[in-house]
Amino acid sequence: MAIETTYEEKLLAGYRARLWIVLGCGLVASVLIGYAIARRGLKPVEEIAANIRHIRSTTLNERLPVGGLPGELTSLAGTFNDMIDRLEDAFARLGRFSSDIAHELRTPVNNLRGELEVALATARNPEDYRETLESSLEECQRVSRLIDSLLFLARAESPEARIKRETLDLHAELEKIMDFYEAAAGESGITLQLTCSKAPQAEVDRALFQRAVGNLIENALTHTPRGGLITIQVISGDKVQQISVSDNGAGIPAEHLPHVFDRFYRADPARSKHTGGTGLGLAIVKSIATLHGGSASIESRVGLGTRVTLQFPTTP
After folding, report:
1. Is residue 201, in this structure, part of any structural domain at all?
2. Quick check: is 141 in a domain?
3. What is the arithmetic mean of pLDDT over 141-161?
4. What CA–CA distances, in Å, run from 22 to 18, 25, 31, 35, 82?
5. Which tens digit of pLDDT belongs to each residue from 53-83?
6. Cys-Cys crosslink for 245: which of 67, 119, 154, 216, Cβ 3.0 to 4.6 Å?
7. Are residues 127 and 178 in the same domain?
8. Are residues 204 and 165 in contact, defined by beta-carbon separation less than 8 angstroms?
9. How many helices (H) and strands (E) does the chain have?
């Protein structure tokens, strides 16, 4: 038996031809539509990239527009804006820091130059020259202290900074520091007092610990009147040792407290310069506490005194 299939074959061949045409058109349409969708989806990314390319060190005040962005990119733009905020703050602090350094160095250099010019202007007796040299030496020492402090702060902020930890008996160490400042306190008519309930221990760098506490005692001695009292107190905890230095001096106005740990900041510029301060003492104290994984805080009331507290972890 035989069946004629010519018609069916022609029908299937036509169907296959039309199917290939439809598939081809569908493929081309899919490519075009996909490209258009991709371009539209990437347009916000291109706009973000274009805005980022225009941001320079001089235009850190510019921010990425967040409105109108897809939800997936809103978080990215917000995170980038937060980063720009931090960079702008860092650049501003760096600019102020550079200006402060130039100002602090310019003052003693101008003093040195003026004294030497006056000394060389006319002939003088040996005693006058000696006074000029002594005054010049004081200015040189001031510059040296400033440079040493700046170098310390720069090293402390380096990621490669390392400290030599050792287990210290804080009570015994604080007694040694107090003995060192006892003579200066006696000359100023100020009493030093240590309060410590037991023998606390912490793993800290001895030299840095001495410097931090010493800076606080020096500040307290400078701003405490004759007959005042400076108290050093140790409060022991399981994980943190808290060392506080308090005085009953003039105190610091509340508006200055958020800035006292900033470099070159002086609540009373005239008085600090008169006493030879550089405005770096508390900045160094905070850097030392941070290096140990601790913190520094300050409390003060005008007319009642100031209390600076350092927290050092018991173990690293």
Report:
1. yes
2. yes
3. 74
4. 6, 5, 14, 20, 51
5. 888 877 788 888 887 777 777 888 888 888 8
6. 216
7. no
8. yes
9. 7, 7
